[in-house]
Amino acid sequence: MAAASDVHVRHWQDEGWVLIEDLVPAEEIDAAVEDLWLLYPRPAEFHAGEGGARRAAFLGGADDRNLFRSSTQDGSPGSTGPAFRPDQFLGRSLFPFPGSGRLNRLAVHPGVVDFAERALGSTDLRLYQMALWAKYHGVADYEQPMHQDHNHSVVPPRSEPGWWHLEGFLYLSDVEEGTGPTRLVRVGDSGGRLEVLPQSPGAAPELYAAEVAAPGRRGSFLAYRPDVFHRGVDLTRPGGSRFLFGLSFKLGGQDWIGYDTVQPRSSVGRFVRFVEGCTPRELALFGVPLPGHPFWTPAGLQAMADRYPALDLTPWWDGLDNDRPADGPGQMGVPR
Ligand SMILES: O=C(O)CCC(=O)C(=O)O
After folding, report:
1. CA–CA–CA angle 235, 240, 246 (5° rounding)
2. How close is the Cα of 180 to the center of ligand 1, in Å?
3. 124 C-alpha to center of ligand 1: Å?
């Protein structure tokens, strides 16, 4: 497994953000990306005006889930310059995704999870943001103002170890100048400042002067702290596109932080298949209690086996201190 180095971990902790090149091998991304095209048109298709309903979803609509509200930067029609515009967010799709399951597996990629655990200093993590984000040149003016993601928490972030969370983008396509590499500012350059509202170039020229772009090949992982100023920029290359998997992590128990929830889609077949391929540690990222947790009883594990027939429940049964039934229903979920 490709692993992030301690230098990457320290860089994230000290500077606030880091780009880890090739954290996921390009071959794994290429195999997983085949599932993307069930949701989005391939770039050539999109720009040729093909792609049917998958393309139409990008035209003439708006998605305001991510909007920051401010009187001066509301991205109203016709506005120019950095702003949050509803059509910037048209390409978001929530986990779990259809297809082979390879794209879903990237949510728990060992290289990404290992980095998040080391950066946050804990193995008790939760995935709280799991969404794809597709952008195509020409769909929207993607230029955003400098901001911190205060929409990930109902309280202001704290900037000390133990209270951080980790926001991340796994690159599913090569992200180069012209295809919108995110701009970010080192925390040292913003001096610990917190701003709930986005900062315009006129109001905070020093943040724009300090911004650095984060281009990288597919498989790279961009991670930033919640107190890092950053912004999306426009896609300027004709025919260009950018595909990311937003994966953000928090410590277990930090209920004030959240974004995407998986529960509303947890009974669909694609989620069942995903769960059935996971280890206990991977499922803990979604809040599933670990083996040995007092939540589990023999009846609870039988019900788990009914809901996820192909999940290997052996570790959970082992965690019950030999309390397993002598004769279960004979499914993989109930070891004999
Ligand atoms: O798309 C990007 O590069 C960054 C997006 C972003 O910062 C946001 O929407 O909050």
Report:
1. 70
2. 10
3. 27
Ligand 1 in reach of 211 Cβ (< 6 A): no
pLDDT the model gives residue 61: 61
**Which atom belonging to ligand 1 lies closest to the Cα atom of 233?**
3
d(CA 244, CA 233): 14
Cis peptide before 96 (omega within 30 of 0): yes
Of 41, 51, 76, residue with least CA distance to 62: 76
* Rounded distance between C-alpha atoms, residue 185 and residue 228, angstroms: 6
Nearest to 50 by CA among 235, 58, 174: 58
Q: Which residue has the higher pLDDT, 324 or 222?
A: 222
86 lines ligand 1 (CB under 6 A): no
Coil, strand or helix: which one is 45?
A: helix
Is the pLDDT reported for residue 75 higher than 90? no
Domain annotation for the chain: domains and CATH numbers: 6-270 (2.60.120.620), 289-336 (no CATH)
Closest ligand 1 atom, CA of 182? Answer: 3
> Given the CA of residue 183, which atom of ligand 1 is nearest to it?
3
Task: Name the residue among 25, 284, 317, 322 with its Cα closest to residue 170.
Answer: 25
- Predicted model pTM: 0.92
What are the tens digits of pLDDT across the range 227-246? 999 999 999 999 999 999 99
Instruction: Outline where DSSP puts E strands in the chain.
Output: 17-20, 92-94, 125-136, 167-171, 183-184, 212-213, 221-224, 230-231, 241-251
Q: 326 C-alpha to center of ligand 1: Å?
A: 53
**95, 112, 256, 281 from 63: Cα distances, Å:** 17, 28, 24, 34
Give residue 63's pLDDT.
Answer: 57
| CA 329 to ligand 1 center in whole angstroms | 48
Query: Does 66 sit in the ligand 1 pocket, CB within 6 Å?
Result: yes
The verdict on the CB of residue 167 being under 6 Å from ligand 1 is no
Nearest CA to ligand 1 atom 4: 232
